[in-house]
Structure formats: structure tokens, C-alpha cells
């Protein structure tokens, strides 16, 4: 089958695609018109990288499109409702990255609470003749509030439980079979916890959900950790809250306009900033790439997507 590669992939991923498919490349923001004449009509699948925006205008121009396979569990880069209305399958790469992302969430939480990157900068800058100041932040006797207790949120909760932290959460729906207290709103969650950790998806439903009201509820000793999507946090409100002490600190793996990180954040010492690396080990990225390709192979061989997203028209009515 002819497939369209949208966005940038590693060389090993490109090789995996080439083994099974006839590949055509669409670079980020490149116009579909730039494909050679007759190619758009032949495309039956899109392999999308996280930096590729698969919007309705692109989908419209591919009349033979059957499936969009996304690299990553979050798929806010794809117009999934448009695809669903046109019976186009969308798949993502759940589970294979869960533990890796949960590890980084916990790492980022410890780094932020205990100022580990600031302490390392202090050492490298040759300041170790006295002692690094005692940190105001700690995880001892603190409650972790998880916004988005799904696959990743639960893996984080399991780790935090082993670290003797109390846990509470907010989702739209209560999770069955968990003992953690449920908060009916994000505001309630923020006022009940010391560390607010976002592992919720991006997209319209969560856009700028974490804003000034939430920071006020979190309070002056509060910490925000975001490993979900940058769009979920009102970055301007966050910068203000960090500057005026409405909250204490923040650890961020994701940003509103990646790879752009606001200058204000870059110059603050009470933030830990990571370049969207939560799943970025060779081991896990390979597993994600394999699942993306396996979805396409299974679709074209057996007519079965392996990991369709909930919004996708599968099983076929
Ligand atoms: P899941 O779908 O398993 O979990 C998402 C959770 O968020 C669910 O419990 C869901 O519960 C809750 N949720 C969704 N929408 C809302 C809402 N509007 N309000 C409140 N809660 C909501 O996904 P995963 O755990 O596998 O992944 C979560 C997200 O993590 C991904 O979508 C992605 O954006 C991000 N991610 C980031 C990575 C990184 O590199 N930083 C790597 C991998 C993932 P309910 O439906 O009941 O509301």
C-alpha cells in the first residue's frame, strides 16, 4: 500500500515503514500539492509523527485514505472527529510508553520539589564551599493530586504510593477499583493536594484548564507537574503564579508552543524544564514505532487496527 509519512521520524522508523509500504513524504507544514501528480489519490494510510498536524484539509485531499496511525498515545495533532465522520480509522501507541512516562513524571516531581537541577547548576558553577540551601519543597507528608488517572496516571500513582505519598485524582469519570479519593472538579483537586500532576490528554476539553483559579487553589507551597500536554496549562497565568508566589514551583515536560519555551520560564530558578522527553528512550521509542507499523500492517493484512483510539469508528457499526 502507498502511505504518506507526515512529520519527522527517526531513520530506524523510516526503515520500518519502507520494509512494508511504498512511502511518500510530507514534511511538516508542506503542502499536499507538493506531492507528485497522482500520488494523493493512491495514499491509503498516513503515518503521523507527533509534530505533524493531520487536519481536515489534509484528509480531504486524500480520497483513498483508510487509516491514520499516530506515533504517540496523545493524538490531539489529528482531527479525530473529522476522521471518524469519514470512517477513517485512527490508531495510537498506548501502553508501550506508560511505564517510561511514569518514571519521568516521578523524576520530574522529585527534581522540582527538591530543586535537583538548581542544586546541580550550583555545584557546576563552583559554589560548593558552603552548603546548598535547604529546600522548602519535599515530598514527605505531601498529597499528590493526579489530573488524568488513566494508564499513565495510574502508573504514576502506583509509584507514588510506594513512596508513601497520599493520592487523590480528578477525571470526568470516577475510576472503578481504585482506593484513591475522587475529586469532582479540577479546582477541588487543586485545593486538596500539594502537588498537582497533569497526565490528562490535550485538545479542546482540557485547553488552558489549569489557570489562575487552579493556581490559587493549589496555594503558595503548591507544585505543578505537567507531563500531559502544554495546551492544558495557561502558560501566562503559570508564569505570573510562579513570579508572585501564588504557587511555589513547576516541573514541565510539555509546553504550549513547542519547541518555543517562554523566556520568563527559562530565567526562573523555581522551574524544571524538560524538552518533551518523557517517552524518549531508544527502548520505548522503538516499541512505539513498532506498534505504529504493526497497526498499519494488521490493517492492510487482516482489516484489523490493533489499537484504535476511542473516537474511531471501530468495531464497525
Ligand atoms: P488515558 O486515556 O489512559 O488516560 C487519560 C485520562 O485523562 C483518563 O483517565 C481520562 O478520564 C482523563 N481525562 C481525559 N479528558 C479529561 C478531561 N477533559 N477532564 C478530566 N479528565 C480527563 O491516556 P494515557 O494515560 O495513556 O495518556 C495520557 C496523556 O499523556 C496522553 O493523552 C498524552 O497527551 C500524554 N503523554 C505525554 C507524553 C510526554 O512525552 N510528555 C508521553 C505520553 C503521553 P475520563 O475519560 O474519565 O475523563
TrEMBL record:
GO terms for cellular component: cytosol. It comes from the Bacteria. Gene3D superfamilies: NAD(P)-binding Rossmann-like Domain. Keywords: NAD, NADP, Oxidoreductase. GO terms for molecular function: glyoxylate reductase (NADPH) activity; hydroxypyruvate reductase [NAD(P)H] activity; NAD binding. This is 2-hydroxyacid dehydrogenase. It comes from Hoeflea prorocentri. PROSITE patterns: D_2_HYDROXYACID_DH_1 (PS00065). The keyword Repeat does not apply. Residues 106-278 form the D-isomer specific 2-hydroxyacid dehydrogenase NAD-binding domain. Residues 3-309 form the D-isomer specific 2-hydroxyacid dehydrogenase catalytic domain. Pfam families: 2-Hacid_dh (PF00389), 2-Hacid_dh_C (PF02826). The keyword Transferase does not apply. InterPro entries: D-isomer_2-hydroxyacid_DH, D-isomer_2_OHA_DH_cat_dom, D-isomer_DH_CS1, D-isomer_DH_NAD-bd, NAD(P)-bd_dom_sf. Belongs to the D-isomer specific 2-hydroxyacid dehydrogenase family.
Amino acid at each position: 500500500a502507498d502511505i504518506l509519512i507526515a512529520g519527522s521520524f527517526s531513520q530506524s522508523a523510516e526503515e520500518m515503514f519502507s520494509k512494508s509500504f511504498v512511502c511518500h513524504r510530507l514534511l511538516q507544514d508542506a503542502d499536499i500539492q507538493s506531492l507528485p501528480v497522482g500520488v494523493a489519490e493512491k495514499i491509503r494510510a498516513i503515518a503521523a509523527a507527533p509534530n505533524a498536524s493531520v487536519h481536515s484539509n489534509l484528509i480531504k485531499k486524500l480520497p483513498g485514505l483508510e487509516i491514520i496511525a499516530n506515533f504517540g498515545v496523545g493524538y490531539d495533532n489529528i482531527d479525530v472527529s473529522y476522521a471518524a465522520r469519514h470512517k477513517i480509522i485512527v490508531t495510537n501507541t498506548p501502553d508501550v510508553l506508560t511505564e517510561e512516562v511514569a518514571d519521568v513524571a516521578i523524576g520530574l516531581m522529585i527534581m522540582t520539589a527538591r530543586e535537583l537541577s538548581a542544586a546541580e547548576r550550583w555545584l557546576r558553577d563552583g559554589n560548593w564551599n558552603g552548603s546548598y540551601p535547604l529546600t522548602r519543597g519535599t515530598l514527605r507528608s505531601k498529597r499528590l493530586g493526579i489530573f488524568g488517572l488513566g494508564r499513565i496516571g495510574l502508573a504514576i500513582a502506583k509509584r507514588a504510593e510506594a513512596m508513601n505519598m497520599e493520592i487523590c485524582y480528578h477525571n470526568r469519570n470516577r475510576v472503578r477499583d481504585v482506593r484513591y479519593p475522587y475529586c469532582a472538579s479540577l479546582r477541588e483537586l487543586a485545593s486538596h493536594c500539594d502537588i498537582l500532576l497533569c497526565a490528562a490528554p490535550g485538545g479542546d476539553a482540557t485547553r488552558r484548564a489549569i489557570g489562575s483559579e487552579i493556581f490559587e487553589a493549589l496555594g503558595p507551597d503548591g507544585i505543578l507537574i505537567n507531563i500531559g500536554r502544554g495546551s492544558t496549562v495557561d502558560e501566562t497565568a503559570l508564569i505570573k503564579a510562579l513570579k508572585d508566589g501564588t504557587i511555589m514551583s513547576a516541573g514541565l515536560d510539555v509546553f504550549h508552543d513547542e519547541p518555543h519555551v517562554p523566556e520568563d520560564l527559562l530565567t526562573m530558578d523555581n522551574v524544571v524544564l524538560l524538552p518533551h522527553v518523557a517517552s524518549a528512550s531508544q527502548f520505548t521509542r522503538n516499541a512505539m514505532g513498532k506498534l505504529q507499523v504493526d497497526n498499519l500492517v494488521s490493517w492492510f493484512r487482516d482489516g484489523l487496527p490493533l489499537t484504535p483510539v476511542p473516537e474511531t469508528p471501530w468495531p464497525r457499526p
